């Protein structure tokens, strides 16, 4: 069945490692029958216990990968993968039961199965042994369902956190967009102000040039008026000066000769 399973490369790698451990367990228990020394048997059982512990870890990892790919796989593929997982759990349970039989025979109660150590919130070795060797398939399924429910709840909480984070990010993006638009309007206003200042500067320069031109014209007219006045004054003061031409519209003064007429008695004017 496993050869027809549709698995991702990650699942195939984990599945292959589990199968390698199962083959090593089968060979190890075959060798155990040939060992007569109890100390060597105990040492061999400890090695096999380590391999079973690693198998359990890999089966958990296999289960996590199935859940991650569950939404992307067809229902039939998910069913086949879960069946393969249950098959591996049963096979591991058979090795656990076989180990327990050898342990009882040897009277060796050391090294409980799946004792991960470290004092963290993990099941004790005794509970793990019961889970692996004494629990029925239905109990294993119920325990797995409970774990899946807890995982789903944790995922839902994570989704809520992600949703809230997305909302905050959306609000932040909207605020940044508004600020960006406002900055764009400010830049446009600054460009308009700069253009107005430039036009005003050009207008001031033109007005300055006009004022300068007007001043030059007024000065030139003032000089002309002063010259005309000077000529008039000189002409009046010295009318016989031939170096000064007559000003049009201004005739030279006519010398006046007065005749004194004496009126005598009995005479009249000619």
Automatic annotation (TrEMBL):
PROSITE patterns assigned: T_SNARE
A GO cellular-component term linked to this record: Golgi apparatus
Residues spanning the membrane: 217-237
Gene Ontology biological process: protein transport; vesicle fusion
Residue ranges that the Swiss-Prot or TrEMBL entry lists as coiled coil: 45-98
Domain T-SNARE coiled-coil homology intervals: 145-207
Chief location category: membrane
Keyword set, alphabetical order: Coiled coil, Membrane, Protein transport, Transmembrane, Transmembrane helix, Transport
Annotated family: Belongs to the novel plant SNARE family.
Protein name as annotated: t-SNARE coiled-coil homology domain-containing protein
Protein species of origin: Crotalaria pallida (Smooth rattlebox)
Taxonomic classification: Eukaryota, Viridiplantae, Streptophyta, Embryophyta, Tracheophyta
């Amino acid at each position: 069945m496993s050869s027809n399973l549709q698995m991702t490369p990650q699942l195939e790698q984990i599945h292959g490692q589990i199968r390698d451990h199962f083959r090593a367990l089968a060979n190890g228990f075959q060798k155990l029958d040939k060992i007569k020394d109890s100390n060597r048997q105990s040492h061999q059982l400890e090695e096999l216990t380590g391999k079973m512990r690693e198998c359990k870890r890999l089966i958990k990892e296999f289960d996590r990968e199935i859940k991650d790919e569950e939404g992307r796989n067809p229902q039939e593929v998910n069913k086949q993968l879960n069946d393969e997982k249950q098959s591996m759990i049963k096979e591991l349970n058979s090795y656990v039961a076989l180990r327990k039989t050898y342990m009882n025979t040897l009277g060796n109660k050391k090294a409980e199965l799946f004792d991960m150590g470290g004092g963290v919130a993990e099941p004790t070795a005794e509970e793990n042994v019961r889970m692996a060797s004494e629990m029925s398939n239905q109990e294993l399924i119920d325990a797995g369902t409970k774990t899946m429910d807890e995982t789903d709840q944790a995922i839902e909480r994570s989704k809520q956190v992600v949703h809230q984070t997305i909302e905050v990010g959306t609000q932040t993006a909207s605020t940044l967009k508004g600020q960006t638009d406002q900055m764009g309007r400010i830049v446009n206003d600054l460009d308009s102000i700069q253009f107005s200042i430039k036009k005003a500067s050009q207008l001031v320069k033109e007005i300055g040039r006009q004022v300068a031109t007007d001043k030059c014209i007024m000065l030139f007219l003032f000089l002309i008026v002063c010259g005309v006045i000077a000529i008039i004054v000189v002409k009046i003061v010295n009318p016989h000066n031939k170096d000064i031409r007559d000003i049009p519209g201004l005739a030279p003064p006519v010398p006046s000769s007065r005749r004194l007429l004496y009126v005598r008695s009995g005479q009249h004017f000619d």
